Amino acid sequence: MRDVGRILIGLAIAAFSLISFFASQEYNPITGENQFVSLTPRQEIALGLQSAPDLIQQYGGVFQDQRAQILVDDIGFDLVQNSVASDTPWQFEFTVLSDPQTVNAFALPGGQVFITTALLGRMDREDQVAAVLAHEIVHVLARHGAQRLAQSELTNGLIGAVAVASEDAGAVQTAAVVGQLVNLQYGRDDEIQSDTLGVCLMIDAGYDPTGMIEVQQILAQASQGGRPPEFLSTHPSPDNRIQRIQQAIADAPAGCP
Fold it and tell me: Cis peptide leading into 238, omega within 30 of 0?
């Protein structure tokens, strides 16, 4: 009888998690897709602003060279103001981080975009910087952070349901691993989308989209002979992305929002 009670509670938790997830569906005009998001735009912006200080500290603080910051600001806001990003609620802010070792760039929900000096220092023309920033801007526009959060909440809910319904630790561990694999694949799709739509932002703002290909080549070179750059821990291999970027360039502007 006790086992039946556990199973019923587990099923209830799973049902609630699934209903909550599918009730969060929204249409995103930037991507042209329906997506599952668990936050409102205002909540996304607040989350990004709240998370930014700790993240900045983690990467050595704000880089004090104003020339680098002005360059990134100029390119970043040029991309925003001359593309579909201009007609969105996101509050974009661009920050250069003082980390000379970690080759990375990332965006927080709501519009906080970061690039490390380790990555910025490897670039020799503005179109390459624009490529990195455009990629990260698309993460914000496509609400990839909110999507991943909703996916994580669903996964955690289902894992919790397994934990309640079964005392088998192996079953819980298996469910957790499967959930991580699902989220990883979902993230890789986000990265490809950020590349291809990033090409559109670059073209709209007057940048050479081949800079996106050059960035992949820079990342490939950075990964040779040592530990792969941090950027590649959350992004697909450059070799797997260049072909898709070339196709996006060939399809533009017909393939752009």
Answer: no
Residue 83: per-residue pLDDT:
96
Yes or no: say if 143 and 126 are a contact pair by the CB < 8 Å rule.
no
Find, among 147, 124, 126, the residue nearest to 194 by Cα.
Answer: 147
Query: In degrees rounded to 5, what are phi and psi of residue 38?
Result: -105, 0
Task: Give the residue with greater pLDDT, 38 vs 77.
Answer: 77
Q: CA–CA separation, 73 vs 80, rounded Å? A: 10
Count of other CB atoms within 10 angstroms of residue 227? 11
If one compares 129 and 155, the residue with the highest pLDDT of the two is: 129
The SS3 of residue 234 is: coil
Beta-sheet strands, E only, within 18-155: 25-28, 33-36, 93-97, 105-107, 112-116
Quote the pLDDT of residue 225.
54
Share of the chain above pLDDT 70, in %: 68
The candidate with the shortest Cα–Cα distance to 156, out of 136, 131, 175, is 175
pTM score of the predicted model: 0.77
User: Which residue is it, tokens 């919790």?
Assistant: 160
Say how far apart CA 57 and CA 117 lie, in whole Å.
14
Query: With contact defined as beta carbons under 8 Å apart, do 231 and 5 qualify?
Result: no
Tokens of residue 172, six digits: 């819980």
Q: What are 222's two structure tokens?
A: 């950075």
Is 50 exceeded by the pLDDT of residue 182?
Answer: no
Interval 31-52 mean pLDDT: 84
Quick count: other Cβ atoms within 10 Å of Cβ 239? 11
Q: Let me know: does 245 contact 216? Beta carbons within 8 Å.
A: yes
